[in-house]
């Protein structure tokens, strides 16, 4: 995470990057419904859930790239992009934990990190700083987790492909969780320094 503010290049709402981010947000409840259908007696729809997750990953890459290339970085886009990332992670955690594919301790570790960041964001706002921006470390953490979750969903069978998916899925989950916490701790350290500088300047 970075505290500095990204330069807003447009005030338009209906830009291509923003529409992609909105589509990702619409896909969150669809993904959660697809992944939880077997829990409520419906047919298994893991293939469709994986497709929605894959399309989300593609749009996540495209919205930021197009915003920079077409000079369409906007205040709305700065809010939509990280919001969509967090909601997909949260919905995937809920779905996979409910289906007992993810252990509860891993889910709690990732949720605890998000709660820590919410507190830090609140401290930032009280001191007049803008919302945080996702840096390379945070993006790398999200990238690893977004690879881990579909692989773990694929690992529920008993064939060689499922075994391979489990190995790589847990590897990505371990790296992603470690990077997720690392990025969060670095962000909290930055917030602490800013708050301390403000207090000393008063």
* Overall SS class: mainly alpha
Number of strands: 0
Low confidence ranges: 1-6
Number of helices: 6
Global shape: globular
Q: N-to-C terminal Cα separation, in Å?
A: 26 Å
Mean pLDDT over the full residue set: 81
Rg from alpha-carbon coordinates: 18 Å
Strand-residue proportion: under 5%
Name the helicity range.
over 70%
Q: Could you describe the largest sheet, including whether it forms a barrel?
A: none
- What is the H-and-E element order? HHHHHH
Q: How would you describe what is shown here?
A:
- By secondary structure, this protein is an all-alpha fold.
- Helix content is 76%, strand content 0%.
- It has six helices and no strands.
- The chain has helices spanning 16-36, 46-69, 75-98, 104-126, 136-154, 160-201.
- Helix 3 runs parallel beside helix 5.
- The relative contact order is 0.14.
- Mean pLDDT is 81; it is low at 1-6.
